[in-house]
Write a structure and sequence with these properties.
Length: about 100
């Protein structure tokens, strides 16, 4: 079953859904959606319909299709410690690059 079929079953008769609902479908909190929309950084195209921010179902399905193809890294990036690196860390990093 494709993403568009799942979305059509989830929102019967709808062509567009509120941006906050679309954001929740891709993992954003409601306030995060509002913040991204105001900064014009929301990952989906937004359409204004009677003062509401709406997203087309086919745009959401295309975005979700692209999300599933991105590889997931096995471990998160290593966090750097606060402050200047120690001499041992600097030497180890230089050995890794050479």
């Amino acid at each position: 079953m494709t993403n568009i079929e799942i979305l059509i079953k989830q929102f019967p008769g709808a062509i567009q859904i509120p941006a906050t609902v679309a954001g929740a479908a891709i993992g954003y909190a409601e306030q995060t959606c509002y913040n991204l929309i105001s900064k014009k950084q929301f990952p989906l195209p937004i359409r204004k319909v009677r003062r509401k921010n709406m997203v087309a179902l086919h745009d959401l399905a295309q975005y979700m299709d692209g999300m599933s193809m991105t590889p997931v890294s096995e471990r998160p990036p290593e966090k750097r410690k606060v402050g200047r690196p120690t001499k041992a860390e600097t030497v180890a990093r230089m050995r890794q690059t050479n």
